[in-house]
Amino acid sequence: MLSLVRAVVLIILVVSTAKAQGIREIQVEFASGASGTTISNSIRGDEIVDYVLNAKAGQEMSVDMQVSNPSGYFNILIGNNPRALFVGSSDGNNWSGILPENADYRIRVYLMRNAARRNETADYELSVAIGEGNPDYADGMAGGPDHWEVTGVPANDTLNVRAAPGTGNEVVGELANGDRVANLGCQMAGKSRWCRVEAGTEMKFTGWVNGRYLQEASGAPQGNEATGMVPCSTAQGQPSRQCNFRVSRGPDGNASVWVNLGTGEERYIEFRNGEPITSEAGLDVSYEKSGDLFLIRMGNSERYEIPEAVIYGG
Question: pTM of whole model > 0.90?
Answer without folding.
Answer: no
